[in-house]
Design brief:
alpha+beta
């Protein structure tokens, strides 16, 4: 009887470990409103398969409790579908909780317009870290590793290096596949360019910005708003450095799409001197976003 009890306990314990092991909590949506006259079940199947792939794959050796899982969103808009070939664009977003608060901040917000892959209904999506299988799995692996890299970087200095390395391995394998969205000189805003925005020497300061802005800035604002905001103000100087070295870097547009609305709220109670400093720093970098920047300088 005792042996049976121990066996049952072991099964339950291993089950709990399995629940705790998953890192990503990803919301997946496949939008097919742009295509007509097609059996939509293939896309329902695809949506479920992608969701399961993100949320049930063991991506790291770290142990995550359910409330620590990394929240992300994966919105695929299908624009063409022919002979199992899917073409469209992809909006990916990554969120992070702010320490000791109910506030969630956006770490990453990016639209990938170079999405093409083959998918046959019912085809299993099987994770294989060591080899290139197909472009769909390559895209999913790339974004999973990128989500992990950015999240870990936001909690510790360069904490996501292992996952940037894994994302780089996916890019390297993909570049010989002939698929679009991966090649170095194909596009300044493709997947290769996004990875380079965080790993090339001239723009890698964005990784330090991630840490200073979030761990030393937002997380500190709960207990010391002025101190936390001052750290965020200082961290924004990285954008100036990136702009001076790589004015066309996708890193700058990613930051704008992720953070500009948030900055308006963050500086709503700042001193006029601090608001002017942030405005003067951002205005040359984002000249077409005058309306948002004006709200930083002169809160409504």
């Amino acid at each position: 009887m005792k042996k049976i009890t121990i066996a049952i306990f072991s099964i339950i314990f291993l089950g709990i470990l399995n629940v705790r092991s998953q890192e990503l909590l990803c919301t997946v949506e496949v939008n097919t409103s742009a295509i007509e006259g097609t059996n939509k079940s293939v896309f329902e199947n695809l949506q479920e398969a992608i969701s399961d792939y993100f949320n049930e794959t063991k991506w790291t050796n770290a142990v995550f409790s359910p409330n620590e899982r990394i929240e992300c969103r994966f919105f695929l808009t299908v624009k063409e579908y022919n002979n199992d070939r899917i073409k469209g664009d992809l909006q990916v977003q990554l969120s992070r909780p702010v320490y000791n608060s109910t506030y969630t901040t956006t770490l990453f917000n990016f639209k990938d317009t170079k999405v093409e892959f083959d998918y046959r209904e019912g085809e299993p999506l099987i994770y294989n870290e060591n080899m290139w299988t197909n472009n769909l799995l390559g895209i999913l692996d790339y974004y999973a590793y990128l989500f992990l890299a950015l999240d870990f970087d936001s909690f510790s200095p360069l904490g996501g290096q292992a996952y940037f390395d894994k994302a780089a391995s996916v890019v390297q394998q993909a570049q010989s596949s002939g698929e679009i969205g991966w090649r170095a000189f194909e596009d300044t805003k493709n997947r290769n360019a996004v990875l380079a925005a965080f790993t090339d020497a001239s723009t890698s300061g964005m990784r330090d910005l991630l840490y200073q802005y979030h761990r030393k800035g937002l997380d500190e604002m709960v207990t010391s708003p002025d101190k936390g905001r001052a750290t965020i103000t200082e961290s924004l100087n990285v954008l100036k450095d990136v702009y001076e070295h790589q004015p066309m870097s996708v890193a700058l547009s990613i930051f704008r799409d992720s953070k500009l609305d948030e900055l308006v709220n963050l500086y709503s109670k700042a001193s006029q001197t601090e608001r002017d400093e942030v405005y003067d720093l951002l205005q040359p970098i984002y000249p077409t976003d005058r309306q948002q920047l004006d709200k930083i300088k002169k809160p409504e």
